[in-house]
Amino acid sequence: LLDIDAEYIELLNTDTSLAARYDLSDVTTEDMTPAPIPSWLAGVAGLLLGALVGLGGSLFGSRLKGTVWVPGDMEATPLLAEVPPRGALLRRGGAARVKGIQAVRSAVLGIAHLGEPTTIGFTGLGTSDDAVSDLVLEVGNGLAGVGRSVLLVDGQIGANAVHRELMTRGSTLGDLDTHSTDDTSVALGVVSVIDKCAEISPNLWILPGDPATTDPVDVLASKAFRELTEQAARRFDVVMVVGPSALSPFAYVMAGTVSAYIIVATVGKTRRPQVELLASQFSGSRSRLVGVVLLGAKGRGGYQPASTIGAGLGPTTADEGGDITEPGDVGLLQRLGGSLAAMGGDDDDR
Predict the structure, then answer these.
(1) Residue 100: exposed, middle, or buried by beta-carbon count in 10 A (0-12, 13-18, 19+)?
(2) Domain boundaries, the chain
(3) Which of 143-176 are b and which e, b meaning 16 or more Cβ less than 10 Å from the residue's Cβ?
(4) How confident is the model at residue 59, as a pLDDT?
(5) Which residues pair with 205 in a beta bridge?
(6) If we measure between CA atoms, which residue out of 308, 316, 328, 300 comes closest to residue 83?
(7) Are 240 and 153 in contact (CB under 8 A)?
(8) CB-based contacts of 139: which residues, under 8 Å, 6+ apart?
(9) Model's pTM, two decimal places?
């Protein structure tokens, strides 16, 4: 211990002490304590986390409710076409939307060419009236552009009609004599209404609804409206009725007047159980369900051959000149399993 003490004293007194041997004047210290997170950043992170949790819960809940997000969610219901949003025309999805509209046109032509006068109704389920009107008008323009005579009837009485600014002239559904019981009087009145329909473009006529009508049932359930659909189906190649929302009680009235109907659904808004229930409720009516057109399927489009009527119909195609063409009548009958020879009569009759 004495030796150690002596060496320690010597170490303190020597020139080679630690203070002389090492220059500690430049030694700095750094505070390693984590800095507190700014309150605004914590708030933003909390909002993002809450939004993600809410979105996940919403998607999970919508799945439980059967909300349609992809075409496969339709399951057994015939899917005629997928139509991307209108804004997709300005982006890469434009070709998909055009293809989807062509698919709807093909399905409509398939229904209209089955050999008997046919009136096709369009009803929205989870889809706005404007979206249904835009779809029908776009399909009608395409059909008229290839030489088909088309009549669009606005069954959304009292609602926003199909581009009402184009319908300031001509007759309306309000011109129908909905209270007459005399067959001759009703028929003559319908002839006059059809003759005065406004032709807004070559081969395309529109019969708008009357916004002043207080009770749409008075029109849709009248003898005059049924006579209208029957006469129009004989005078025009294609007759399409823009019907009320499927959730409206007026939709069931329309189902008793048209020959076939198409449900217009929307991704994220339409529920599969609603589609199935509607098809079941309409099954006992005069109309038959053709299929569903799914709107809002971004980046997708085209024909889905799921319907028994549409199964043999291909999408419309573009010829070498770039003009849109529809499937021919002969090919249509052959694809439906029919035969021109089996129809009898001469070529003109066929």
Answers:
(1) buried
(2) 40-67, 70-335
(3) bbbeebbbbbbbbbbbbebbbeeebeebbbbebb
(4) 54
(5) 151, 199
(6) 300
(7) yes
(8) 101, 104, 105, 108, 240
(9) 0.65
Nearest Cα residue to 216 out of 260, 180, 252: 252
Axis crossing angle, helix 223-235 with helix 183-195, rounded to the nearest 10? 50
**How deeply is 115 buried, as exposed, middle or buried, from its count of CB atoms within 10 A (0-12, 13-18, 19+)?**
exposed
Q: Which tens digits make up the pLDDT trace of 45-61?
A: 778 877 777 666 555 55
Question: Right CATH number for 70-335 from 3.40.50.300, 3.40.50.10420, 2.30.130.60, 1.10.287.90?
Answer: 3.40.50.300
DSSP 258: S
Residues 6+ apart with CB under 8 A from 23: none
- How many percent of the chain have pLDDT more than 70? 63
CA dihedral 177, 183, 189, 195 (to 10 degrees): 140
Q: Which residue has the tokens 């993600």?
A: 52
Alpha carbons 100 and 105: distance in angstroms, whole number: 9
- Tokens at 45, concatenated: 């992170």
pLDDT band at 188 (very low <50, low <70, confident <90, very high): very high
213 pLDDT more than 80: no
From the list 142, 69, 71, 68, the residue with the least C-alpha distance to 302 is: 71
- Token pair of 113, please? 């060419």
Residues belonging to the chain = 350
Contact of 196 with 176, CB cutoff 8 Å: no
CA gap 84, 266 in Å, rounded: 10
